[in-house]
Amino acid sequence: MKMTYQRLSRYIRDYKYAQHKCSSCGNELSRVRLLFSGKLITHKDIMAMDHPVSPEEWQEFMAQLEPVCRFCSTICTGRKATLFDIEGFKAHLVSDNTLCLATVREYVMRMRRLDQILTGKGLTVARLPDFGSPSQWERLLPDKSRINYRIALTKYACYAEKLSDTAHEAEGSV
Fold first, then answer.
1. Angle between helices 86-95 and 146-172 (to 10 degrees)
2. In this predicted model, what pLDDT tens digit does every residue of 7-50 receive, in sequence order?
3. pLDDT at 61
4. 55-62 vs 8-18: helix crossing angle, rounded to 10
């Protein structure tokens, strides 16, 4: 019996267009981005994958693919945040059904940029001010769009407080 091989790029395109939900946030997908082992696959990457693969090889490859929306692809790729829990913050905001996705994206991107700025200044998690000290945070925020950073930081402080409360409840039940 002859084994049928198909180009990997064909398998990927078929897979890509069959996806309807983001695997990260669960939102409906209008445009799909694919991550392979956590790295974004570009259109050029897909076009270069023109070698034939067997159905078994495709199944192994497919197990490492993750369909995500454009927003989640920007969060999942690139430099990982070191000062703030960006992934958890995003999940927290998405679960709050009162915010539209564009607002969630704005808060998350502000916190990601703030992480980069503060890391660049040499700050560590241990050296970050308490969220209850707005004057200490004020001197760390960039001059440009300061109000927007302040709003995102306030939202992040609510998330951090919720995490802290959850951790204390878990300790109390042990």
1. 90
2. 999 999 999 889 889 888 888 888 889 999 888 898 899 999 99
3. 93
4. 50
The rounded distance, in Å, linking the Cα atoms of 84 and 143 is 20
Which residue's structure tokens are 């009162």? 98
Strand partners, 41: 34
Tokens linked to 83: 């000062």
6-7 and 65-68 strand pairing: unpaired
pLDDT tens per residue across span 56-75:
999 999 999 999 988 888 77
Amino acid residing at 139: R
Other Cβ atoms less than 10 A from the Cβ of 118: the count is 20
Ordered alpha helix ranges (H), 54-129: 55-62, 70-76, 86-95, 101-120
**Would you list the DSSP string of 26-51?**
-PBPSS-EEEETTEEEPHHHHHH--S
